[in-house]
Structures are given as C-alpha cells and as structure tokens.
Specification:
This protein is mainly β. The protein has one domain: Thrombin, subunit H (Beta Barrel), CATH 2.40.10.120. It is built from three helices and 13 strands; from the N terminus they run E-H-E-E-E-H-E-E-E-E-E-E-E-E-E-H. It is globular, with a radius of gyration of 18 Å.
Length: 287
Amino acid sequence: MPRLALPTACALLLASLPSLANDAPARLRTRAEVVHQALRESVGVQVFAAGTLTRSGSGVVVQTTTGADGKARSEIVTNAHVADQTGLKHVTYQVLREKMGRIVARLPAKLVAIGAVPDPDLAILEVNAALPAAQLADESALEMGDEVVVVGAPYGRALSVSGGMLSQIVAADTAPGQPLRFTSMKTDAPIGYGSSGGGVFVVPGGRLAGVVEGYQTAEVDINARESFDVPMPGETFLAPLTEVRSFLAAHLGARDFPEPQPVELATGAKAATVPAAILPAASSRSP
C-alpha cells in the first residue's frame, strides 16, 4: 500500500513587459494559442559546476530591455533551489531555447538575484538576447477553478505542457481598497521532475499566474529495501503570483511590475508552500 512521504524535492526545475493586466484587457486566446505562446516564453535552465552539469530546471522570460549600448537582454525567473550555488564551485548557467524538442539556442546566463528557500524560492537569470516575455496576470482576475497550462522541462529534456486548474488560492487579510495578495497557490496540473521554475499560464488570457515550486508525493514500497515516489494529483505547489510580482519589482524595478489593482475586500490566511527538490545530475538527460 502506498504511504504518504514528506514533500519530495522534485526538480521541478520559468519584449519587454509592455503592459500588465490592469491595462487594456488582452485578447482572449484559444487553449492552443496560449500553449504556443507559453512555449515561446519558456526555457530550460542548466546549472554547471566546474563545467559539469549538476542540475536542470525550467524558467520563464519576464522582461526584455535594450541597454544604452543598444544591446538587448532578457530576464528569466526560475526557482532559487534551481539556481542555488551552495556547495558548488565555478558555477555557470545556460538557458536553452527550443522548438519541438530541438535546441535552437544555448545562451550563457548570469545570476542577477536569488531568494532564500523556501520563501521566496525564486531567482532571476539574465541572457544577452531578445526573447519573447510573459506578462503577469492580475490577482483580482484569478479564481479557483480557472483553467491553466503548465510548461516545464521534465528530466532535463524537451519542454512539455500539461493542463489543469487553479486548485487552491489563499489570500492574505487586507483592508478594503487594498490590493489582493496571494500567499499560497496550487494547481492540479501534473508535472514531472525537472519542471521547477516552470510557468503556469491562465487560459484564455495567456498571462503568468505563478511559478512551479514542487509537489507532494506518495512513497510506494517495492520490497523491504526498495521504494519509489509518485506525484499526488492536485498537489503541485506554486510560487504565488504576488510573491513573483514583488520579487521582480524588487530586483528589476517597480515601474515594470506595479502593484495589482485594489479590491474592496480580500480574506484568507497564510498557508505554507512546499519547496521542491533538485533533479540530480545522474538523472539528467540531454534534451
């Protein structure tokens, strides 16, 4: 019989943001259109130590700008537990762009900012390239039951897409007229090892609602000495939208990532999120 295990580290190892949801409403897209767009805005992330691949994950492009030198650069959000350098030497990062499973670009990346696991389990990488960027959703436009698609690079291979709904949203208590703030989010969309940092996109709007952090697993015994973990449906934990927005604003500028629209009333309680684990190098396979 399966028995519940502690939340397992799952490597769930995410064009300038011209407007956010509080601007003119975006055109509603079909599910297929949202998937096509989300794939263009998503990347694989690889972490090397002394030239050896040690960790694989996922990420989402959130901003593209042009510097005073006329060169473009793009920022990518992923998980802190993906980008973490603890215990590693001579760390370098690589961002993978792909199309239908074929790698079309391997971009050297630098670490711009990193949080502390478990809160916030976020990091920002930067590449010298102009990449399509996702736009953030608005908290007031999201509800439990909203349809979403999730993009990640499971097992360090090609990007994959799964679908589901926002199965949990927990909001902090706020005074009337204050912005709605999410403290915890979950989706029932299934994901695999290596998808940490992957984006969760709302259908039909196509905007980013959160970033994959990890999932709950059940441990299944094969015999007295061997067992394996299986993901529990509906237990995919996200870095909530509000946390993503605040982290990006703190490190990339509040002007590009402004506060959401105020709401009359929002109630809720703080709920803990579950940090995900890392895809071990031994499990990494070439995309």
